[in-house]
Amino acid sequence: MDNWAALRACKQASATRRITDLFDDPARAAEFSVTLSDAATGPVHFDYSKTNIDAETRAALIDLAEASGLESRRNAMFSGEKINVTEGRAVLHTALRNLDGSLEVEGEDVMPEVRATLARMESFARDLRDGRIRGAGGRITDVVNIGIGGSDLGPAMAAIALAPFHDGPRCHFVSNVDGAHIHDVLDGIDPETTLVIVASKTFTTVETMTNAETARAWMARTVRDPARQFVALSTAQDKTTAFGIDPARVFGFEDWVGGRYSMWGPIGLSLMIAIGPMNFHAFLKGASVMDQHFLTADLAQNMPVMLALVGVWHRQVLGYPTRAVLPYDQRLARLPAYLQQLEMESNGKRVAMDGSELEIPSGPVVFGEPGTNGQHAFYQLIHQGTDIVPCEFLLAAKSHEPALAHHHRLLAANCLAQAEALMTGRSLDEAKALMKAKGFKGAELTRQAKHRVFPGNRPSTTLVYPQLTPAMLGAIVALYEHRVFVEGVVLGINSFDQWGVELGKELAVQLLPMVDGSKPAEGRDGSTQALIAALREMGI
Ligand code: F6P
């Protein structure tokens, strides 16, 4: 029996039991969880006991991972082999946070350059934070990071997550080409005390370049030499120079850092300016703790591996199409958006490495909101809808607001309550008893009770950690990065390209002259022609 057939048999067996049955084993919670403890991060505890995975299923999942060549693929990634085969590139974001030693790519040790760039970032960030790098109007008060996708979501998410550590200038993030975004950010800040960071791996992304030109024109209105207040983060120094940015203000990186994996290096500059180099180092350290764990722990005790295999069980074996990320941590409000790019751009693919079509589903749709907000929005469907949505809860033991500890306990109780409700549910008999106590009788009692049944048996995982610190955030993001990698290996796809974003970009270039009326909209489909006509009629 091949690995997938074994898992199909596990699926069949799981259909006849409820998750709650598995807790007949008093050791289940301990045995179906992984704890990683390190001085830099403190303990991180991942509980997957509230899933319908039993010991046999877990063994079959681990067999699948082994048969997929996980360990050799993982070692190939860390050692700089060109595992991104459709772009002919190595995948070495881990080198940006494992700073000791050497690492050869095409016969050259890449680490001295990585360390030198990090040192330049640190000295730039210190000079800016201490007021030695100034704008035309004096000390820099505001930093605007212009970038999109991986050049935005990482630092934007982390800047919110690490707000309690933010002691540098205010940081703003502009991504959307919609002029409303840059307008609203620039409105109310002073060009004479603003630093603009243009973050783009390729320095060709049309949204970013359009926003960068708008920011430069805005600054040029009052600042004689705007280039002095511009910085570029890019792999393309020829293009940053052509844009007029002083090479001394360019922080470069190599093509082996993928966009959505890039916040650990120069793309993290805005974050480093916000929280300071020491906290940024702690963030890198937390990620490197997770890297070492991923490299060395046995598969059954390996947190990224088990998080990934729970994902494979839910998506590829049981066929659930979505996955909800539910941080009970307001400052992780942008984590779901960050993970949407990380997971869906990496594993939203229908063709395997060898060009054949996948016979199993690709990665799931990822969505989420911080708890408790989501509870009052979409949890209705999660509890009583016809689809099963595996939920991933995240919760810190401590907030950064000791004076509001009672809020935090309420938050924690809500998180645990949701996971419990999803698993245990409420039976018709229980619902009937409730309605009877409220005075309902006969057919009306049954009808009312049916609406109040919770089927339960809905899976969730919970990640708990002491507090959201820079090191912990680094560990959590690296956990998800490696999870995506493991899922990609099991699927047999290349998680590191993103060809699916190209066609829309090409068509936008073709449609622009039709939208602005310089070219007729001939040859397009009927709907697009009609929409262009309607927009032109409305005065676009
Ligand atoms: O369009 C997709 C994408 O290439 C992402 O993968 C990337 O993070 C984003 O665009 C931004 O690219 P760049 O950093 O080159 O501007």
Automatic annotation (TrEMBL):
Enzyme Commission number(s) from the entry: 5.3.1.9
Active site, UniProt feature: E345, H376, K505
Family annotation (Gene3D superfamilies): 1.10.1390.10, Glucose-6-phosphate isomerase like protein, domain 1
Annotated GO biological process: gluconeogenesis; glucose 6-phosphate metabolic process; glycolytic process
Main location: cytoplasm
Keyword Cytoplasm: yes
Keyword match Isomerase: yes
Catalytic reaction annotation: alpha-D-glucose 6-phosphate = beta-D-fructose 6-phosphate
Localization of this protein: Cytoplasm
InterPro entries hit by this protein: G6P_Isomerase, G6P_Isomerase_C, Phosphoglucose_isomerase_CS, SIS_dom_sf, SIS_PGI_1, SIS_PGI_2
Alphabetized CDD domains for the sequence: SIS_PGI_1, SIS_PGI_2
Alphabetical keyword list: Cytoplasm, Gluconeogenesis, Glycolysis, Isomerase
GO annotation, cellular component aspect: cytosol
Molecular functions per Gene Ontology: carbohydrate derivative binding; glucose-6-phosphate isomerase activity; monosaccharide binding
Pathway: Carbohydrate biosynthesis; gluconeogenesis; Carbohydrate degradation; glycolysis; D-glyceraldehyde 3-phosphate and glycerone phosphate from D-glucose: step 2/4
PROSITE patterns for this protein: P_GLUCOSE_ISOMERASE_1, P_GLUCOSE_ISOMERASE_2, P_GLUCOSE_ISOMERASE_3
PANTHER family, alphabetized: GLUCOSE-6-PHOSPHATE ISOMERASE (PTHR11469)
The protein's role, per its UniProt record: Catalyzes the reversible isomerization of glucose-6-phosphate to fructose-6-phosphate.
NCBIfam families per the UniProt record, alphabetical: PRK00179.1
Family designation: Belongs to the GPI family.
Name of the molecule in the record: Glucose-6-phosphate isomerase
Lineage summary: Bacteria, Pseudomonadati, Pseudomonadota, Alphaproteobacteria, Rhodobacterales
Name of the coding gene: pgi
